[in-house]
Design goal:
about 375 residues; alpha/beta; TIM Barrel; five-stranded parallel beta sheet; two-stranded antiparallel sheet; 9 strands; about 45% helix; binds iron/sulfur cluster
Length: about 375
């Protein structure tokens, strides 16, 4: 549901400012909240969640509070998801997000490098503040989606490794603070598009867009990159974007499935996130985990080994990279974590977010 549009900021990879001619608009809270409530009540699916569409829903605290007040005063319980900048949030707003039944928020973090934050005009301060807010949202049960960009024009390997480290640290907060990534693409109207051209772009044959179009026999090569920009990544002069792009995809996939394994590798085995990244480059995700289990075996407790095995089996099963029977794991995994919490103090307070039973079936 559209609740407004536009963003007051001007990140150099984003086309929001051009598309909205620099304007930032918010629909009146009483209008869109009523619409959302009506859509929620009319839905035949009792699990429906309303998705609020706005480039930066949280950028205006006054408007956000108007929305929250209207929803709370009318006791409208409908769940919703939204997106915004994490630095626009304060703890009072997080309390209101929780009270108004926000289920999930998408934040663009983009880079762990201060240099890239500045050059790209994203200007997010990378500090403890982000961790504190993510932890607080998780304590409130709000799913936190964090997106990172790989392939900034000025990015060096060292900048990229700072992003890799930040994403790793944020992912280990708990199971529902999930980092994702995208490769920088030439958005129409964005600054980076004005300083690059077709010769700087590489067709992404691994992208879902490419696969969809090629499967429908469409003549992709003749398409204008200006309108099909997500089919492309931009060459980087400091590293091979094709190699780094593929490795970054595997690394983020690794973070998605191996939250606790990552925490153990870094906190018990004292490996850095860069070493994990390089390990995946050499061995692929499954191969890397097998090496980890082999090398850590003597130092792992039974519970730790159980969790790594659980994450590995889940990974094989969901990604379909196994000929084995569908994974039917019914071990009370939350008890494992609970025991770990009590005995080793290794993790944050997770048990209340974990499912009673974990059952994964292949499609
Ligand atoms: S990336 Fe987000 S914060 Fe930056 S200009 Fe676009 S909408 Fe605004």
């Amino acid at each position: 549901m559209e609740v407004g549009r536009g963003c007051p900021l001007d990140c150099y990879f984003c086309s929001s400012k051009i598309i909205n001619a620099g304007r930032v608009e918010y629909r009146e809270a009483n209008v869109f909240v009523e619409e959302a409530q009506k859509a929620f009540l009319n839905s035949e699916n009792s699990k429906v969640v309303i998705s609020f569409n706005h480039d930066n829903f949280l950028s205006n605290k006054r408007k956000f509070k108007e929305f929250a007040s209207y929803k709370l005063e009318n006791n409208y319980f409908f769940p919703y998801v939204c997106e915004g900048r994490i630095d626009a949030l304060d703890f009072e707003m997080i309390d209101l997000l929780y009270e108004t039944n926000c289920r999930s928020i998408f934040f663009g973090i983009e880079s762990g490098s201060e240099k890239i934050q500045k050059l790209s005009r994203k200007n997010l301060r990378i500090g403890t503040d982000i961790f504190e807010k993510v932890k607080y949202m998780r304590q409130k049960g709000i799913v936190v989606e964090l997106n990172f960009l790989v392939g900034f024009l000025e990015e060096t390997t060292s900048d990229l490794m700072q992003t890799i480290e930040l994403a790793g640290k944020l992912s280990s907060i708990d199971y529902f603070s999930a980092p994702n990534h995208s490769l920088l693409s030439p958005e129409p109207g964005a600054y980076i598009t004005s300083v690059t051209s077709q010769v700087d772009y590489i067709l992404r044959k691994d992208s879902v867009f490419y696969k969809d179009l090629i499967n429908s026999s469409m003549p992709i090569q003749s398409y204008n990159s200006k309108f099909f920009n997500h089919l492309y990544m931009i060459k980087n002069k400091n590293y091979d974007i094709e190699v780094m792009g593929v490795t970054a995809s595997k690394y983020f996939e690794f973070l998605k499935f191996f939250h606790f394994t990552t925490k153990m590798i870094t906190e018990i085995w004292n490996k850095t996130y860069t070493e994990i990244f390089e390990g995946i480059l050499e061995n692929e995700v499954g191969g890397y985990i097998s090496v980890v289990i082999k090398n850590m075996k003597d130092s792992l407790t039974v519970l730790q080994e159980e969790i790594i095995t659980y994450e590995l089996q889940r990974y094989w099963s969901i990604t379909g990279r196994t000929d084995e029977q569908p994974f039917m794991y019914e071990y009370p995994i939350q008890m494992i974590y609970f025991e770990l919490l009590e005995t080793e103090q290794l993790f944050y307070d997770l048990q209340k977010y974990l499912p009673k039973k974990t059952k994964v079936r292949m499609a």
